[in-house]
Design a protein that fits this description.
The structure holds two protein chains of two kinds.
Chain A: E1 4-5, E2 10-14, E3 19-25, E4 30-38, E5 45-51, E6 56-59, E7 62-67, E8 72-77, E9 86-94, E10 102-103, E11 107-112
Parallel strand pairs in A: 2-11
Antiparallel strand pairs in A: 1-3, 3-8, 4-5, 4-9, 6-7, 7-8, 9-10, 9-11
Chain B: E1 5-7, E2 10-13, E3 19-24, E4 31-37, E5 44-50, E6 53-57, E7 65-68, E8 75-79, E9 88-95, E10 105-106, E11 110-114
Parallel strand pairs in B: 2-11
Antiparallel strand pairs in B: 1-3, 3-8, 4-5, 4-9, 5-6, 7-8, 9-10, 9-11
Classes of the chains: A mainly beta, B mainly beta.
């Protein structure tokens, strides 16, 4: 049973517009959520994280929103650039864990010029 | 330092053979993780080391799998008697210390194909 779900396998947006990637989770013990980006033939690259005690974290063009009551988080990329085209993974860690992350299946983002 | 290095990048092996992968973490990082990623899935945790000590193993790590990190530097992951279901990307990651919310650095992975 998947504890971290990314229900959209793919997303296509126009350059300059907003990209919104969604993630749902089931485990209420998760206390940190992370987003990774992955280009083909490379390992995932850490983007941004959020603690479960916050509802928003921002880093440049990237903002992550957390709705704990809905067990939902989203990653907003504004403005989207062609170089953002990649697979984005949502991941979560459980309180008391020692760093092992539980990943979703990923969403492939395509930003068209 | 150029990041986390994994070798080989690709490995094709016949079913039943043993394979070994190597991971060289970022030099000052004392934590090292192994993940496996199959097609259409996200990475799945296998095991992690704090220095040379293997502190946690996932149930995915059957007795055919063994990982070591002698001297707390590089790590090896060995799969004995490979099966077709072992075909996957094996990812290594490292971090300086464990701080929740700090992402760790992944290598580019070793893609294993069992034929």
């Amino acid at each position: 049973d998947q504890q971290v779900k990314q229900n959209s396998p793919s997303l296509s947006v126009q350059e300059g517009r907003i990209s919104i990637l969604n993630c749902d989770y089931t485990n209420s013990m998760f206390d940190y959520f992370l987003w990774y980006k992955k280009y083909p033939a490379e390992g995932p690259t850490f983007l941004i994280s959020i603690s479960s005690i916050k509802d928003k974290n921002e880093d440049g063009r990237f903002t992550v929103f957390l709705n704990k009551s809905a067990k939902h988080l989203s990653l907003h990329i504004v403005p989207s650039q062609p170089g953002d085209s990649a697979v984005y993974f949502c991941a979560a860690s459980e309180g008391g864990s020692q760093g092992n992350l539980i990943f979703g299946k990923g969403t492939k983002l395509s930003v068209k010029p | 330092d150029t990041g986390v290095s994994q070798n080989p990048r690709h490995k094709i092996t016949k079913r039943g053979q043993n394979v070994t992968f190597r991971c060289d973490p970022i030099s000052e990082h004392n934590r090292l993780y192994w993940y496996r990623q199959t097609l259409g899935q996200g990475p799945e945790f296998l095991t992690y080391f704090q220095n040379e000590a293997q502190l946690e193993k996932s149930r995915l790590l059957s007795d055919r799998f063994s990982a070591e990190r002698p001297k707390g530097s590089f790590s090896t992951l060995e799969i004995q008697r490979t099966e077709q279901g072992d075909s996957a990307m094996y990812l290594c990651a490292s971090s300086l210390t464990f701080v929740q919310g700090n992402g760790y650095t992944f290598g580019s992975g070793t893609r294993l194909t069992v034929v």
